[in-house]
Design brief:
By secondary structure, the chain is α/β, with parallel strands linked by helices. 17% of the residues lie in helices and 44% in strands. A hairpin with a 3-residue loop joins strand 3 and strand 4. The structure holds copper (II) ion (CU).
């Protein structure tokens, strides 16, 4: 894949994400952006919920979700990926990366520590 093709892919993904956001704003599905064809990266804002709250990634490649917690509400002070055995504290007004490799396809819920705020990780088969 050359640089032009990557740019086209990225622009296409951005356009699709934009359309999804425009028409399905409540859901805000966002496909992960690949950095150097390796880590799949998505920035997620935490403020009374997760934005985006639906994240699409590919199976078998490393994922980094950068959670920026834009509030001090105790509800959101932890994020839990139960299916992947991950729980992270999210300091307020900071970005906390959560890194893992989704080893199986499917839809996985992530939540706050109290299981109130919810988001969904959709892992597409490799
Ligand atoms: Cu909570």
């Amino acid at each position: 894949m050359d640089t032009t093709e990557i740019l086209v892919l990225v622009a296409g993904a951005a356009a699709i994400a934009g359309v999804l956001w425009y028409f399905f704003g409540e859901r805000r599905a966002v496909a992960a952006r690949s950095v150097d064809g390796g880590v799949q990266e998505v920035k997620i804002t935490v403020k009374g919920g997760y934005s985006p709250d639906v994240v699409v990634v590919k199976q078998g490649r490393p994922v980094r979700l950068d959670f920026y917690r834009d509030e001090t509400s105790s509800c959101s002070e932890q994020v839990v990926f139960g299916d992947f055995g991950i729980a992270r504290d999210l300091p307020a007004f900071r970005t906390t990366p959560v890194e893992f490799i989704p080893d199986r396809p499917g839809e996985f819920t992530f939540t706050c520590g109290m299981n109130m705020l919810r988001g969904k990780l959709a892992v597409e088969p490799a």
